[in-house]
Homoserine dehydrogenase (Thermohalobacter berrensis), 830 residues
Amino acid sequence: MGNIGTGLYKILQMNREKVENLLGRNVEIRKVLVRNLNKNRKIDIGKELLTTKVEDIIDDPEIDIVVELIGGINPAVDYIKRSIEKGKHVVTANKAVIATYGKELRNLADEKGVQLKYEASVAGGIPIIDTLINSLSSNDVEEIIGIINGTTNYILTQMSHSNISFENALKKAQEKGYAEADPTSDVEGYDAAFKLTILSAVAFGETISPDDISREGITKVCQEDIKYASKLDYNVKLLASAKKYNNSLELHVHPALIPKKHPLASVDNEFNALFVRGNAVGELMFYGKGAGSLPTGSAVLADIITIGKTNKMEQISDKVITNNDLKINGQGIGQYYVRLKVIDKPGVLGKIATTFGEYRISLDSVVQIGRDEKIVPLVFITHEIEKLKLDKALEVIREFSVVKEVSSILKVENL
Amino acid sequence: MGNIGTGLYKILQMNREKVENLLGRNVEIRKVLVRNLNKNRKIDIGKELLTTKVEDIIDDPEIDIVVELIGGINPAVDYIKRSIEKGKHVVTANKAVIATYGKELRNLADEKGVQLKYEASVAGGIPIIDTLINSLSSNDVEEIIGIINGTTNYILTQMSHSNISFENALKKAQEKGYAEADPTSDVEGYDAAFKLTILSAVAFGETISPDDISREGITKVCQEDIKYASKLDYNVKLLASAKKYNNSLELHVHPALIPKKHPLASVDNEFNALFVRGNAVGELMFYGKGAGSLPTGSAVLADIITIGKTNKMEQISDKVITNNDLKINGQGIGQYYVRLKVIDKPGVLGKIATTFGEYRISLDSVVQIGRDEKIVPLVFITHEIEKLKLDKALEVIREFSVVKEVSSILKVENL
């Protein structure tokens, strides 16, 4: 009965008539597990529904569906397992549990002939899990690029539009309730990595540990990078991306540049979006609210309705094909944005560009701003290159006496 | 075995392994109805699969699913009915048939215990039908605004980006294969009205005749409107919109202005997009290719897979709740863009603005361009008003001797 649980309860009140018409049966909340029976709640819920004992739910044979909206791995994963073992369908919004134990729980659900649904675990109200499992089952998915963390997207949008620092944007996000007191999970990309793990399992059949995803947060993104990116017609976003190259899967969570004219670039503030490329359907994008009690509750209720619509023994619609042949690969091929601080004197640009050339790194654009100061920024965008070569070239460039700093290296997604 | 049929055949070749793994059974094409057995085809298909007799399909008890990709109402609707009557599931991409006979066919399919699926009939590869029926079943849908005709979107994009006339943009669209030799159905909005009918049935449970939708095409949209809209930070798009107000449903197909910063505004060229607002999930947008043999074939194959996954007698997942309580309403409340041609002399703006005021039409912005010419354009954007009042005010304004022409009236969607 936290944020999402309360949202689910409200939506069921708002849309009960439609839902029951659709299902041809009643949807009844039988028990709600809470920590404190006497807490004042924002909604009017009968005291007799509340319990502090999980057994009142798990052991009640009249309960068909258990909805887990606790969050965090423990005790949620234990409650989910025990519910499945008792033959109950489970709906959850828990990204940590599904990212870490998804395969095991899916197998257990299959074995017990029940459904395990987790639409709300990624991108809140955007129906990306069902879309990948059902509507895109006809495609070989080649690429997914998502803005799937609303907190960091809000911060980057504020840094860009209101011209404020990361620290001030974070403070604003915390005031608005978009960021938690300890923002680590969001700003360091852990939250996005959990979600990318779930998306990869569903889209590519690949079980990846979130720890194996190359991950970089947004704490190092500064005003300067956002400004230079904008001059070059790019916006900076925290992207979670999964791309198939032949038989390898490249996974990243990192701040990256997207061309302003691409629909992903105008996904602002707390909104989320997912860009998907399939070998038949081509490019698709899905946009909406990735968090919040009503959007997330909407996804949870849709899962409940789907279970209500299908006979449990006949349902194989959420089968995730397992594919362990793909190699996981965190090393990038792509375009990169590089910002240096250099001493402004003749020949510097030539010297650096020559070094890039020696490593076969060709350049898409170069911007040098603020002439006649002693130390100036120098910004490059490369053509498609191997990240390893860029790293090697930058090792050399970093040692030049005229180079004061390699300030930033960001991926460019020229979609 | 036309454009979409060929696409479906190709996708099945490309992705057969994945599809059969998912279904745990083979997918076999048993017969293909063609007009001409000896035509040279772009794909390598065994001659023994082809037939010119529809009975070879409808009367074959081994065929489980009939895929109708003929287009047009006759004979497609007859083939679909006869297939359902023989207990076969039907998948179709036929918007004319579903818009006109959808309710009747859905009822027939329910009665016979088979599935009728038509994801490909609206917005090609974008999975909007399944999303509305399943993922958004937890919501009361309040509004749908779509760019669902690729031909007109291509034309308007070209007019806007390449600064060419409607006629030249249409010619370019025809050369690229985006527009037909007779472009009436697209440019006059008939195609979008068919699709809006289908979306309304699925989202609102309301059966509407396409003829009852207020419809305006893009043939009257000119360079000038696109230019002035752009100055005011709007793009012009052909929108299909359905909006619920209390107990009435307002439906339109018309060219309209959208704020440039809204994600719908950057949907360019042949791409489609649907913006949906639900009472729980809030705003969602879905973007992708609305036509083409592979994207549309992708949607057809997804429908086939869904049927393959579910036991036919248990399946009620595509139930469309019927709702005949909503009144259909074509009269708008909203913001409007009005362009006049007036003689440029002092007091003209005052006189017109006063008249708007008398009809309680308040103005959001006014642009007057090209001073010191004899006849100048005058562009207004109103605040939210009743269209009827605007029409009355313009009747008066039209009679002023200084007003040479009421050149355009366009809806503004300030999403």
Q: What stands out?
A: Chain B has three domains: 3-127+293-309, 130-290, 332-412.
